[in-house]
Amino acid sequence: MNPDTLHTQEPSERADLSGPVYVALINLAGRQRMLSQRVGLYLLNFHIHRQGGREIGEEDIDAFRRAASDFLSAHSTLVEGDRKRAIPPLFSESVKEILFGKAQGARHIERFISLCERYEADMIGGQTYDLAELLQAITFIKGDLLILLQAVVKALEDDYIAFNKNIDKVRENETRSVLNALEKIQKSAHMSRLVAFNAKISSIRAGEYGREFGALTDELKRISDEIGESSKLIARNLSRQAS
């Protein structure tokens, strides 16, 4: 793991957003939060083993390394995106502010990765370490770092809520536009029926000469009726979905 791989500049590239993208990012941020706390517990457990003169098991060492590596991977995906999973580079203005704004939350991430590397070498490698510094590191993980990661999750959740509200508003506007268009169609169908009715009367008055014209007016009325009924059905379905 190399802290230098962490981006401290705001990514500018954006991609089309969707509900699944937000869900994936929220899950990713939540996993990042969980992994950080797991690392803190492993560090404390390793210290207890060292104090008791017990050997640290290979499974625990591998789990610690996996947790630290997965944390870095999750952070890189959150910032840089992942084309294979259709996750775009960081687009949330709230998360950008948390990580790269005045608070410089990304520095907490860098510090955490550095701590992982340091104590992997010291504790697992059997080297000596300062207990006060270790406890300070664990306090940081369970304090400032946890607060930062919780803020990232909350920001993404708020963005998702706003996204859904905007989608609902767009759908509502689109539904309203369709209903307005259907209302105009219904009015046109009604006028067509009136024209067909008047034309039918005229064809009757014309007697033998109006028969062909009368057949056309009957067809016009039939078409107008079908258009009117179809538009009413569509309007009812849209109104039901909008309510």
TrEMBL record:
<dbReference type="InterPro" id="IPR029095">
    <property type="entry name" value="NarX-like_N"/>
</dbReference>
<keyword id="KW-0807">Transducer</keyword>
<feature type="domain" description="Methyl-accepting transducer">
    <location>
        <begin position="172"/>
        <end position="243"/>
    </location>
</feature>
<keyword id="KW-1133">Transmembrane helix</keyword>
<dbReference type="GO" id="GO:0007165">
    <property type="term" value="P:signal transduction"/>
</dbReference>
<keyword id="KW-0812">Transmembrane</keyword>
<dbReference type="InterPro" id="IPR004089">
    <property type="entry name" value="MCPsignal_dom"/>
</dbReference>
<keyword id="KW-0472">Membrane</keyword>
<dbReference type="Pfam" id="PF13675">
    <property type="entry name" value="PilJ"/>
</dbReference>
<protein>
    <recommendedName>
        <fullName>Methyl-accepting transducer domain-containing protein</fullName>
    </recommendedName>
</protein>
<dbReference type="GO" id="GO:0016020">
    <property type="term" value="C:membrane"/>
</dbReference>
